Amino acid sequence: MRTITYLQAINEALDEALAQDERVFLLGEDIGIYGGGFGATHGLQEKYGQQRVRDTPISESAITGAAVGAAMTGMRPVMELQFSDFITVAMDQLVNQAAKIHYMYSGKAKVPLVMRTASGSGTGAAAQHSQSLENWMAHIPGLKVIQPTNAYDAKGLLHAAIKDNNPVMFYEHKLLYSTTGNVPEEPYTLPIGVADIKRLGKDVTIVATGIMVNKALEAAEIVKTKGISVEVIDPRTLVPLDKETILTSVEKTKRVIVATEAVKNSGFSAEITSIIAESKISMDLKAPIVRLGGAFVPMPAQKILESKATPQLDSLVEALDQVMGEIEV
Amino acid sequence: MNKRVNKIQQTKLIDGIEALKKMWEIRIFEEMIQELFSAGELYGTMHLCIGQEATAVGGAGILRQNDWIVSTHRNHGHCIAKGTDIRSMFAEMLGKKTGTNEGKGGSMHIADLDVGNLGSNGIVGAGFPIAAGAALSAQMQGTDQVVLCYAGDGATNEGSFHEALNLASIWQLPVIYLIENNQYGMSSSIKQMVNIDKLSNRAMSYGIEGITIDGNNLTEVSQTVSNAVEKARNGGGPTLIEALTYRHKGHSKSDKLLYRSDDECQQWKENNDPIFRLESELMKEGTLLEADIREIEKTIRQELADIVDSVKLDSEPTIEDLWTHVYAEDEV
Ligand SMILES: Cc1ncc(C[n+]2csc(CCOP(=O)(O)OP(=O)(O)O)c2C)c(N)n1
Questions:
Q1: Which CATH class is domain B20-72+124-308?
Q2: Which residues of chain A have pLDDT under 50?
Q3: How is domain A196-324 classified at the architecture level of CATH?
Q4: For this structure, is A159 an active site residue?
Q5: Based on CB atoms within 10 Å of each CB, which residue in A205, A245, B3, B255 is the most buried?
């Protein structure tokens, strides 16, 4: 299998989806000749024309609302929200309209739209361009929330998102765009709502979301030399969430670390730890659950401060030592 | 409100030489920022306003210190023109504790309330209602401050533009909306993103005066802004000014400039550069000789280079600083 970047994987999925289904079209700011904020739509307007790869004015609310209207009436829009932070500008259309319509209209209408968006920190663009707000979206009934962490997942999950009959939030981490992975050349879909065991282990489970998956895998390699065997679970989709896979892993390892880049307070890690705490497994845990997440501060611009605002490799290694410290290995 | 008319004549516009110096300061500041960025010494992002110096200086530069500006992501010119300390701006961009925002804001969020700079914004269109709010505050507190709100052409397609203009109009707020129409929002030509010739026509829907001007002509900018300021100060309400201009550089660092022709770009650079236009005016009227101007430019270059050298020695924020300013302290 060939190796391509996460960015190319997304571009390829969009390309294939446009080719496969006439109802699919793309809309967003600068997605045409510019190729999108981060290059994900590069070359697609040339190939499919300005009707199907549609540049819009800077009007997030209108873009989202237009996607809702088009989706309700037979199209399958894939919109790009340049930075996930700008969701705040589109909030009514997404939260009060897109997420509610199918339910409120007792199933008479559906809203099959995908909102692709770049999230996360690590570029020095400060508090209005570096947030991880996917938690918020996971709190809204009616939305599906996907966070692919490698190129293979990105392509398969994007295909699935486009085929899904619901509004789907598709979070792409900016720092993952340049990462590479093995990706099949042909189109394929991965199931929404199925977690992926990114690494098998027996001593401790790290449930990580987004870019933290990659850091967890690195940390697992580091502590391997100390004889600690780490299992890394990537939920891949926050909504629907595959509780089974998480609980099965924790039942085996009996130690848990949950890691998100998003701010820890009131965050998605609380959801995951609660699910574990509410299950019978919690009685058998060998160590208290450790939760790593973003500091409760707006993201600073300055490089050192920025890196300290989210969990890094060393925090994961420390956390692994901490949960293992409770017993003899 | 009929005292308005005489007041207009009293406005003291910016001195030509001072204006030229400011414009060169802005341009050289940005050239240096770009160099630092290319050299890998600057982390983060930046949006250069090279080619748009006349709207900065002719706008923010003619305000009183206690008047406010609200700026955008393309903010360096506005900030410098309003009197924000250049050293602190360099420091902010280089991630130093001595920066305007102590390293927390970076390029896009430079603020300096002491000189009336209410801050720059990373969210396109977010400034429109904030400016209205600041103007409301001036009105309610009975001060004669005015607010100058900068925004790009693309920003006028955000809902916030329309909502804020309506508010400013019904409350007759002392706010001037200055749209720097540099023809593009990232890659999108304004001609393709709106179906009207003049963005200033949009003012009509809200009962506001709308004017389109040559944004690269310093005198025209400062005169128009100054009239609008006097009107606002005297209770005459908001004005929408559309200033036609051009950004010489790409939108930001990742821009490959595929969406506009070299020819178009060259035209603006050669025939319509606001600095060169002001220079030739000053030379024509005999205020300055070519040699004086080159001396001015050289001096500023040296000054700014010295500043950068010294800023590099400043210390960075400490990890404790990550946790400060999340919430404001109670007043004592
Ligand atoms: C709400 C929001 N949408 C999109 C962006 C991304 N973005 C940043 S600048 C920009 C273009 C702005 O164009 P314009 O308002 O004309 O200002 P200019 O850059 O030309 O000065 C875009 C789309 C953003 N920062 N905020």
A1: alpha beta
A2: 327, 329
A3: 3-Layer(aba) Sandwich (3.40)
A4: no
A5: A205
Identify whether A240 is preceded by a cis peptide bond (ω within 30 of 0).
yes
Is A278 exposed, middle or buried, given 0-12, 13-18 or 19+ CB atoms closer than 10 A? Answer: exposed
With contacts defined as CB-CB under 8 Å, which chain A residues touch B192?
55
Whose tokens are 């270059």? That residue is B301
Strand partners, A172: A118
Residue of A nearest to B158 (CA): A59
Pairing status of strand A290-294 against strand B68-70: unpaired
Pair B277, B221: CB distance under 8 Å:
no
A307 with A124: CB under 8 angstroms? no
Q: Do B321 and A305 touch (CB under 8 A)?
A: yes
Nearest chain A CA: its distance from B61 CA (Å): 27
Confidence of residue B254 (pLDDT cuts 50, 70, 90): confident
Arithmetic mean of pLDDT over chain B: 95
Parse chain B into domains and list their residue ranges.
20-72+124-308
What are the C-alpha distances in Å from A128 to residues A120, B104, B329? 11, 11, 23
Structure-token pair, residue B112: 């300096």
> Do B279 and B222 meet the contact criterion of CB atoms below 8 Å apart?
no
Q: Which residues does ligand 1 sit against, CB inside 6 Å?
A: A 29, 58, 60, 82, 86, 89; B 73-74, 122-125, 152-155, 180, 182, 184-186, 251
- As a three-state string, the secondary structure of B86-113 is HHHHHHHHCCCCCCCCCCCCCHHHCCEH
Angle at alpha carbon of residue B282, lines to B277 and B288, rounded to 5°: 130
CA distance A300 to B178: 29
- Per CB-CB distance under 8 Å, the chain B contacts of A296 are 326
CB-based contacts of A282: which residues, under 8 Å, 6+ apart?
A276
The CATH 3.40.50.970 domain(s) of chain A lie at 2-183
Q: How far away is chain A from the Cα of B18, in angstroms, using its nearest Cα?
A: 33
**For ligand 1, atom 21: residue with the closest CA:** B152
Tell me how close the Cα of B94 comes to any Cα of chain A, in angstroms: 8
The encoded tokens of residue B282 equal 């000053």
The whole-number pLDDT of residue B7 equals 42
pLDDT tens digit sequence for B23-59:
999 999 999 999 999 999 999 999 999 999 999 999 9
Closest Cα to residue B71, out of B180, B205, B221, B157? B180
Ligand 1: which atom is nearest the Cα of residue B251? 19
Atom of ligand 1 nearest to the CA of B126: 1
Topology of the domain covering A2-183: Rossmann fold (3.40.50)
Q: Which residue on chain B is closest to A305 by alpha carbon?
A: B322
